[in-house]
Prior knowledge:
Layout: H1 11-30
Amino acid sequence: xxxIEKGQAGPEELAAITAVLLARVTAxxxxxxxxxxxxxxxxxxxxxxxxxxxxFRAAHSWRR
Length: 64
């Protein structure tokens, strides 16, 4: 989803930006793909679940 910050985009302008964005997404997905032309596998997530450590407290720990 995107929005117009200033002015008004006409149907032709919206179609043009949509085509450019879709072309970029397609190129990014197929970059590095094998000979079969299948999309490349996504890399490792940029976030991770924090592991419970010494600072971990259970949800009911406020009760003593």
